[in-house]
Amino acid sequence: MVMRGKMLAVWIIILLLNAARGREVCYKRLGCFSDSPPWAGIPGRQLAGLPHSPDAVNTNFLLYTRDNMVKYQRISATNSSIIKASNFRAHRKTRFIIHGHLAGADLPWLTSICRFMFHSEDVNCILTDWRDGSSGLYTDAVNNVRIVGAELEYLVNFLEKEYGYSPANIHFIGHSLGAHVAGEAGRRKPGIGRITGLDPAGPLFQYTPTMVRLDPSDAKFVDIIHTHAGHLFFDFGILQTCGHLDFYPNGGKRMPGCSQLRVPPATRDINDLMRAYGSFGCGHKRSLRYYAESIITPNGFAGYQCDTYQQFVLGDCFPCPEEGCPLMGHHADKFLRKTEKEHQKVYLNTGSSPPYARWRKEIHVKVCAPETMKGNIDIALTGTNGFRKKYTIDKGTFKPGNTYLNYIDTEISGNISKVEFLWKKQLGHADRGCMGAEEVRIISGENGNMSVFCGCGAVQPSKWQALALC
């Protein structure tokens, strides 16, 4: 009996050790994959199962170039003759675009990103299509991230071996789960030039070890755009910094023009949530829209390096330093100090509808009036292209000779050609006096340049006053 008890204890220990080690599956081309920690069974990643087979995930690489902007060419590292017969050219930079979970409706946007690039650069643009591995349960798609990352590594190794192609010339652009696919490929293949994470997926990745998610070590330069980030279980995007430059447009949580998703508190199953809301996560998809527009708006989307969004709103990080501000999106790599530190937070505001790019300006309005007035003051700015837009500067009580300040994010790029002033009397305020703008100073955030416009006299409520350059 004693011997049987000892044997039973030994078998229990063996079973526990095997459970801790987890299961493993291996594939000839791609290597082995296990469900041991940190891939599963850790806080924030209560995940079960192994990736599907490479055949089931069915990763396809669809090549677009200036020579075939509309119809893709399917290329494969398992058949060298296909790549040699394609329009792939080794002298070009190669940008891979990688979709996320339930990406069917996003594919037209992803291919349009390639076409936008061709307006300004001659690149190999490769859409990484893994819909067979990402269209089912979210938890299955999370597991399949590793298979697609391994497929990318296999293709990059092939290009390096057959063409002498440097990994430094490769740029992975991944949306949602696709951002972590890029991270996995970069973890496997050192020396990748750049990874851009477009609202990297949060569920089962947030605050997990860097081995299982995108982080700055995965490429020479990693830039992130957070558009639906949060601590809550059902927020699509990751909140934590995970790049060299982490951009948080509009604070990174709620995008203008997108309604907030309301999820029943009792709904806690991640697969149910992602199936119900993943196909129309407006904020989550804004990262794609912002990136696409940034390609054709090279001086748009300037971001300001602040510790918090509140500091940005208050103007604590305004204007840009002498070396300039980082640009969110395609041209983020132009920033000279991009890899000086990891986890640099960058804030900016966007519009609620396209075009999304905005240019931040600091507005000072010095008022003139015979007495203290109550109401609100507006200005209208007109650009050199004739575009005119009105902005509210302040509301409340205005004293003669005082200057009032506000920060605006305007659609107008470049110089301001015309400034107008308007004030509206507070409802119920009996005073019938006049008020005007003695001076309006406009400071551009991107370069600190100042324009000063002067006014003459005062106007009655709801009457526009035109100012001229001083």
UniProtKB/TrEMBL annotation:
It is an enzyme of class 3 (hydrolase). Pfam families: Lipase, PLAT. Coiled coil: none annotated. Residues 24-356 form the Lipase domain. The active site is at S176, D199, H284. Its EC number is 3.1.1.3. This is Triacylglycerol lipase.
